[in-house]
Amino acid sequence: MSAHPVVVRGARVAVLGLARSGSAAARLLSREGASVYASDISSTPAVEASAARLRNEGIAAVVGGHDPTRLSASDWIVVSPGIPLEAPALAEAAGRGIPVFAELEVASWFAEAPIVAITGTNGKTTTTALLGAIAGTAGLEASVAGNIGRPFSAAVMEEAAPDWFVLEVSSFQLAGIDGFRPRIAIVLNLTSDHLDRYPDMAAYRRDKERIAENQGPGDHLGLNAEDPALATFAEGRPPRRHAFHRTQTVVSGATAAGGRIALVGVPDAGPVLAADELALPGAHNLQNALAAALAASLMGIDRAAIAAGLASFHGVPHRLETVAELDGVRYVNDSKATNVDAALVALEAFDGPLVVILGGRHKGSSYAPLSPALKRARAVLAIGEAAPLIERELGAAVPVELAGTLERAVERARAIARSGDVVLLAPACSSYDQFADYEERGARFRELVGPAAAGRQA
Questions:
Q1: Annotated active-site residue in 66, 194, 245, 362
Q2: Best CA proximity match to 128, nearest among 187, 82, 81
Q3: Whole-angstrom Cα distance, residue 189 to residue 43?
């Protein structure tokens, strides 16, 4: 639990955004004695239902806009990750000097356990869930939350004092921190993403680097040594630095050199298990496993429990999730591949012919890097707002059809795919043009494909 930079009890607090993070923050602050006004600019049925639930709990909640009078009368404001700090609704508040905090920051004020925070452009969800599973194998109570889909505020209310909070954190969440301090911070990679929201990569990097902003000499920062962008990440900050690498040894951290995962220079150092004993397939998941093993060691978990956790964890929904095999065609849901690099990882996970569903809301990056991996594809079925751009950028490398909607794409995929093919949903885009989030998109893909073999992992 960290010191509050502002008074909570009796304060007038505005919470912007009524999705999961905003609603959880509103409940937490109301419980802690604040007078909460919560609002959302949209008025979808889901948002209205969220507002209604808050009103039933005595919290003022409105949809369809933010009341400037209520905002300017607030002592401070909490913003959901989906709302940029530069949003018009916050401009006047900023001019008046009203503090604005992320939900991640606010929840940390009431967290009574140390925090492991995991960030990076890709792999965050898998690594966070894997670390939570390893902790459970070791008999620790680890509360897994954050950008993984369960708000940190909800975790704080539901589990007052676990052994650890294991958090997936995004750049959007880190942008609004003040004193958020993870005991252990893990950074998986740093590649082009969210350029629809950030002016350039430098701005994106600055928000990512905030994960180490409040760390001290007794804290730990684990970095992917294979990513040159991380060589100077948070340089000059006081936490002890560690590295993980799939093929080279490291001074302190985790390595898979020689085909065996091993810990070096950290608690209970030594060999853990053979890399081919991992339950998760793919070179990218070996990298995630090294990151999780390093974090687990720094949490005090012994090698036997780490090995057991790595060998038994089969993945998370919407990450290379096989949802059905019909007429010899395998249908794989990687809806969590919301950027080009994540989609490329998904494409490279398969050796045979593909029918690929791409598209959604464009995030600013070129789709051209996908061209080499798409040469094995029978077709790309482009959906959503980005479909015309995908056709322009990839049409010379692979047949591209403008399917428009996920429904039409799945129908068309059934007609195109042959026995032995993989139909892969790896959008390389956000979902917000047609769906509430990537989970809703993935769930709809499951429904469209059919119930057979649901839940199996690639």
A1: 194
A2: 187
A3: 36
194 annotated active-site: yes
What is the CATH classification number for the domain harbouring 18?
3.40.50.720
Tell me if 364 is assigned to some domain: yes
For residue 155, give both structure tokens.
């975790």
pLDDT per position as a tens digit, 142-163: 999 998 878 999 999 999 789 9
Taking each helix axis from N to C terminus, what angle separates 283-298 and 303-312, rounded to the nearest 10 degrees? 150
243-284 pLDDT, tens digit each: 999 999 999 999 999 999 999 999 999 999 999 999 877 778
State the Cα–Cα distance between residues 321 and 325, nearest whole angstrom: 12
Q: How far is 377 from 417, CA to CA, in rounded Å? A: 10
Please report whether residue 280 resides in a domain.
Answer: yes
pTM for the predicted model, two decimal places: 0.78
In angstroms, rounded to a whole number, what is the distance separating the alpha carbons of residues 327 and 433?
Answer: 32
Of the candidates 59, 313, 15, 58, the one whose C-alpha atom is nearest the C-alpha of residue 151 is 15
- What does pLDDT average to over the chain? 91
Q: Is 124 a catalytic residue?
A: yes
Residue ending a domain, among 278, 312, 346, is 312
Q: Are 158 and 107 in contact (CB under 8 A)?
A: no
According to DSSP, the residues that pair with 377 across neighbouring strands are: 354
Q: Which domain holds residue 48?
A: 12-98
Q: Is 285 marked active-site?
A: no
Active-site entry in 122, 147, 224, 339: 147
